[in-house]
Design a protein that fits this description.
This protein is an alpha+beta fold. The protein is built from 3 helices and 7 strands. 23% of the residues lie in helices and 28% in strands.
Length: 87
């Protein structure tokens, strides 16, 4: 799995990250794994039971916005973009 990140996540995780998984997993499990590995990610990727999206992170695959219950596959290419407030 390849994950591309955008500022400021690139300062936390690097501009791209490669992960190896043997089986498909829910996005929520992937984010839990990444937060264990990189605790600085928690303000963006954290979530509570019942949430549909992480606190401050948009995760895209092939032009589709993913939810926490979507399953990601070992060969997926994901893009992680922090949410930005403003108008």
């Amino acid at each position: 799995m390849k994950i591309r990140t955008h500022a400021p996540l690139d300062k936390i995780m690097g501009p791209a990250k490669e992960l190896t998984f043997q089986t498909p997993i829910p996005l929520s499990d992937l984010l839990r794994f990444l937060m264990e590995e990189t605790p600085e990610l928690k303000p963006y990727a954290g979530f509570r039971p019942g949430d549909v999206q992480p606190y401050g992170l948009l995760v895209w695959r092939g032009g589709k916005l993913l939810t926490l219950s979507d399953v990601v596959n070992p060969m997926d290419e994901l893009e992680m973009i922090p949410m930005v407030a403003g108008g």
